[in-house]
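INFO batch 0412 | record 1 of 1 | parsing
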Amino acid sequence: MITRSLTQTRQKLEFKCTKTEDSERRVSLPASTVTALERHRNRQNEFRHQFGPDYRADLDLIFANPNGSPLKPDSVSASVSALCRRLKLPKDVSLHTLRHSHGSHLLAAGMSLPVVSERLGHSSVRVTAEVYSHAIRGQDDEAARRWEAFQGKNTLDSHEGLVQ
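INFO prediction complete | emitting tokens
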């Protein structure tokens, strides 16, 4: 469940409500991600033990420094950018690019616009449609195939009563 985000200014780090203001957002995770997060939590528990009462357990962060304090968002972004370079991904790939790719792939795979919009935490389906219109295009052939299948089924159903 996503309930807050961390922002960084020149002066400080600050927790704030999500863009959807005071509402919690649930995001389902694949089993492989849950397994990775459980391993990560076990490593965090080792740090909790090492730091004892100095560990910032009050923040209850998923990703934190070894002492439980928040990671600076720009250092996370820098780490992701470094990983992308090591993986020889294009130079402009960033953490935001990965989020955008996630939404694009879901839509291209046929996931509904409202589901993707909610998953990404957009304020409306319209925002998602405008940003991800490129991923929705190219599905016209599939739409024609589905319409033909629908028409064929309904044509047979409606003609059954006429042929006796």
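INFO post-check: The chain has seven helices and two strands.
INFO record closed
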